[in-house]
Amino acid sequence: MGIDIEIADCQDSLEVDPERLRETATAVLRDRGVVSAQVSIAVVDDAVIRELENRYHGIDEATDVLSFDMRDETTGESDPSGESDSDDESESAPQVDCEIVINAQRALTVAQADGHEPVAELNLYLVHGLLHQLDFDDQAEVQAQMMHEKEDQLLNQLGFGNVFYRENKE
To answer: Which of 6, 44, 50, 126 could form a disulfide with 62 if both were Cys (CB 3.0 to 4.6 A apart)?
Structure first.
């Protein structure tokens, strides 16, 4: 048991610090009470994420982040009965097995347009993808606001400041 994070940097648009991404992912998981996780992070460019978005969602355009749940659908994240043979509290903690694909080329473009650091934007994408894996949703306006507030809370704790709600910066 533990948190295992693998990072693949498959682009040349932006210099990426894998340890900083690992720190961000770990902070998000710990904030949500995750004690067991397998997270694969792929940092890609527009062309790669566009191809994935088209393949998996039928949308022929580049996006900022894709998040894939890799858990076995037959077993899920825990015993559906809620019963456990163990008294260990970690048995009931959320477990994550996912792949997060983040677009460095988009992060660079958006950050330049909005006047903030590309690394902050890239970390926003990572936080966003992980929160989707942790049952956050942004389809309804109220849910989206809660999700984006949580993103900025976490990014502030990590020293990036507000990234999503930039207009609220001090």
So the answer is: 50
